[in-house]
Specification:
Elements (H helix, E strand, L loop, with lengths): L1 E6 L4 E7 L5 E8 L2 H9 L5 E6 L4 H8 L5 E5 L5 H4 L6 H14 L10 H33 L15 H9 L5 H28 L4 H7 L7 H11 L8 H7 L4 E6 L2 E6 L5 H14 L8 H11 L4 H22 L13
Parallel strand pairs: 1-4, 4-5
Antiparallel strand pairs: 1-2, 2-3, 6-7
Helix pairs in contact: 5-7, 5-9, 8-9, 9-11, 11-13, 12-13
Length: about 350
């Protein structure tokens, strides 16, 4: 078995080949094109294991070279300390380090999913990005008004029929109205793009209508949250236990402790789209009356026991994702009476 490390670049790819004993056989720099990659790998005899780090190019490269090698591993860059912490860091050494990690068996592969889930993930990511772009455009518009001495509150500034009234307030000062028009134009463009992303997301989610319908029966989970969970949690069997699930959703705890001293805090690692969906669901749950559902009851009971609101939000998000994970596994509707609630 030969171990081949590839450092992918936009125009060129650096490749290192090790033999079964870990000896460095050759180094090459080849164009990042399908024909060049396939031609190089075809000339390497015997069984081949190719290692690439997860990146924008990784998915395309893996699909292109998979028929020509024995195994392809897309590994987590965060776990490759031999590369990230090295003082001798360049393309040649990085691909050699990947091949070396493959030889040592110290790689952490990235989960692969089928084409349908991959397409849905891409649609979900683009929706959330367009949503954040719209929020950014709104914040910039308000900042522009505030800079010109016109503080605004609420959502009226974003409504089209009130736009002329806000222009009148700016005319009383020395604001640049052309710049204001550009801010409103950005807002309108972001709104149109978000609407288009929602339409595309509906199309991509059609093969998973049953799973999405079941998830929408859970209090706090809407259409976007359901699509996000289906895209990343798939059929509900991806994670074997709830601690792995929480870690993936950025709901675990990071610890820096030694001999009982140190500190703990919320994890920075995991899927931000899932965490955003879950926290949005929690925000919806905690605004409802106490007797609405069992999940909301858990929120009020936690506050009554003296649990800090920030910690209680995380606990409720954990409960919400465990319920959603179970529903995806068995494709059942949410049953409120099955949620354990004290007294």
């Amino acid at each position: 078995m030969k171990h081949i490390g590839m450092d992918l670049g936009g125009t060129t790819t650096t490749v290192t080949v090790l033999n079964a004993r870990g000896k460095r056989l050759l180094d090459r720099t080849i164009p990042t094109r399908e024909d060049a990659l396939v031609s190089f790998l075809s000339k390497v005899p015997g069984d081949k294991r190719v290692v690439v780090e997860e990146s924008q190019l990784a998915d395309w490269v893996v699909r292109a070279i998979q028929p020509y090698v024995s195994e392809v591993i897309r590994c987590q860059p965060q776990h490759n300390a031999l590369i990230s912490r090295s003082e001798d860091k360049c393309d040649e050494e990085d691909c050699h380090a990947l091949a070396r990690l493959s030889y040592l068996g110290e790689l952490k592969p990235v989960h692969h999913t089928d084409w349908g889930y991959r397409q849905l993930r891409e649609g979900v990511r683009e929706y959330w990005k367009s949503s954040w772009d719209l929020t950014r455009a709104k914040n910039r518009l308000k900042a522009h008004f505030l800079f010109n001495g016109v503080p605004t509150a609420g959502e009226a500034i974003y409504v089209s029929r009130w736009r002329e009234a806000f222009y009148d307030r700016l005319r009383q000062g020395s604001a640049n109205l052309k710049l204001t028009e550009l801010h409103y134009q950005r807002l309108d463009d972001c709104r149109s793009l978000k609407a288009a992303q929602v339409g595309l997301l509906r199309e991509l989610a059609q093969p998973y209508e049953e799973e999405i319908r079941c998830l929408k029966t859970v209090p706090g989970i809407g259409p976007i949250g359901a699509c996000t969970m289906v895209a990343y949690l798939e059929n509900g069997w991806r994670f074997s236990n709830k601690r792995q699930l929480w870690k993936y959703c950025r709901l675990s705890i990071r610890r820096h402790e030694s001999q009982g001293k140190g500190h703990r805090g919320a994890s920075y690692q995991g899927n931000r789209y899932l965490k955003c969906s879950l926290m949005t669901g929690v925000a919806s749950l905690i605004t409802r009356p106490q007797d609405t559902n069992a999940l909301t009851k858990l929120w009020y009971q936690g506050l009554t026991r003296g649990v800090e609101p920030q910690r209680m939000r995380r606990n409720l998000a954990r409960k919400l994702v465990v319920v959603a994970h179970h529903i995806l596994r068995y494709r059942r509707n949410y049953q409120d009476e099955l949620i354990p609630v004290a007294g």
